[in-house]
């Protein structure tokens, strides 16, 4: 099979690999689509090395179809459409036992350490199959949309912490794919208005088309004050890894408001914040890293429902043979999100 391999930091290559065969407990997926994300770029450049194995097949936003079942696998059938949770947790460490499997101390990730979806086939490890990582669809979903189950599950994990209530005014800082997913989740939760900010005018257009008030970074405060009669946003979600936004978000939130630092910041980042904003406004600050299996299930259910506009997010598709060019396009910020289909 063909596979896009991380040869070493800074170098990816399309290689031929033997077709995988599922061993006991394993499931073989025929890959139907894999979407690309900014984290991939950080892995390729070498900026992100934690949990990354040299020689790994890239791609962690995977939609596939079950092609073969290993010995002893039950509950799945060949031909079923499925999306994997990429988080393989140990289920016995202290963090897993706190109910935080996605923050497991012995976490292994598909597409980082375990071979991912930028290939003709993807082998789901027995441990992942046994703990229910593979989520099948009940109705057929466009594969380039189903691949969004992974990033959407991460947004759902964060959204369950920042809890948009009906009528809330929500500010989303960033209008990339992640910003557009948080926008749509906020709308689905009953937000009365979502204000999305982005420096790029081109990137604001899809947010506006989805019903957001789309503004530049200099206009976001004014927009929030207007929408809330001067009170501040109920919820602020930071979707760009710029440390300076940590403070901006605290400013934008109303007394008792919720702030999510959803974006990962560059390693070692620090930010200056007015700590009295936390004290006097009693803000609740949360984060978001990966997702639980239950979040992936919720994401697949939501994608099946058709209530989430995935066409607004997946704007371009490349062939697997052109995967290196697809990454160049992600770097050049072509469209919103790019899918690769074998
Ligand atoms: Zn991703
Ligand atoms: Zn664990």
Features:
binds zinc ion; Rossmann fold; 2 domains; globular; 12 helices; 7-stranded mixed β-sheet; 342 residues; alpha/beta
Summarize the structure.
The chain has 342 residues and is α/β, with parallel strands linked by helices.
**Shape summary:** globular
Q: Tell me the count of domains.
A: 2
Each distinct ligand: zinc ion
H/E order of the elements? EEEHEEEHEEHEHHEHEHEHEHEHEHEHE
* End-to-end separation: 10 Å
CATH topology of the largest domain: Quinone Oxidoreductase, Chain A, domain 1
Helix content: 25-40%
Number of H- or I-type helical stretches = 12
CATH architecture designation of the largest domain: Alpha-Beta Complex
CATH superfamily of the largest domain: Medium-chain alcohol dehydrogenases, catalytic domain
Question: Low-confidence stretches at least 5 residues in length (pLDDT < 50)?
Answer: none
- According to DSSP, the number of beta strands is 17
Q: Specify the CATH class of the largest domain.
A: Alpha Beta
Q: In angstroms, what is the radius of gyration?
A: 20 Å
**Beta-strand percent range:** 25-35%
Arithmetic mean pLDDT: 97
Structural class: alpha/beta
> Strand count, sense and closure of the main sheet?
7 strands, mixed
């Amino acid at each position: 099979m063909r596979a896009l391999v991380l040869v070493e930091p800074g170098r990816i290559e399309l290689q031929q690999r033997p077709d995988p065969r599922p061993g006991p407990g394993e499931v073989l997926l025929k890959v139907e689509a894999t979407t690309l994300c900014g984290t991939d770029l950080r892995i390729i450049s070498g900026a992100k090395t934690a949990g990354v194995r040299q020689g790994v097949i890239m791609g962690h936003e995977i939609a596939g179809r079950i092609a073969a079942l290993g010995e002893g696998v039950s509950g799945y059938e060949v031909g079923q459409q499925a999306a994997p949770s990429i988080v393989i947790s140990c289920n016995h460490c202290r963090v897993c036992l706190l109910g935080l499997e996605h923050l497991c101390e012995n976490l292994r990730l598909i597409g980082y350490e375990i071979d991912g979806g930028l290939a003709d086939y993807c082998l789901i490890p027995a441990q992942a199959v046994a703990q229910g990582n593979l989520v099948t669809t009940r109705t057929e979903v466009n594969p380039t949309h189903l691949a969004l189950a992974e990033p959407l599950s991460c947004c759902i994990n964060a959204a369950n912490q920042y809890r948009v209530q009906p009528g809330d005014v929500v500010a989303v800082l960033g209008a990339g794919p992640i910003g557009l997913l948080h926008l749509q989740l906020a709308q689905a939760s009953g937000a009365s208005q979502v204000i999305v900010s982005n420096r790029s005018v081109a990137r604001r257009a899809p947010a506006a088309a989805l019903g957001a008030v789309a503004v530049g970074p200099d206009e976001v405060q004014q927009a929030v004050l207007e929408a809330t009669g001067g009170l501040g946003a109920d919820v602020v979600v930071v979707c760009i890894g710029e440390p300076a936004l940590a403070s901006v978000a605290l400013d934008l939130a109303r007394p008792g408001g919720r702030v999510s630092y959803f974006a990962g910041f560059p390693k070692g980042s620090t930010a200056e914040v007015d700590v009295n904003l936390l004290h006097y406004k009693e803000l609740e600050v949360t984060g978001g890293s990966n997702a639980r299996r239950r979040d992936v299930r919720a994401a697949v259910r939501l994608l099946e429902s058709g209530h989430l506009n995935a066409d607004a997010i997946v704007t371009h598709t490349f062939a697997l043979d052109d995967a290196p060019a697809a990454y160049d396009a992600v770097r050049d910020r072509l469209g919103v999100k790019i899918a690769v289909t074998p």
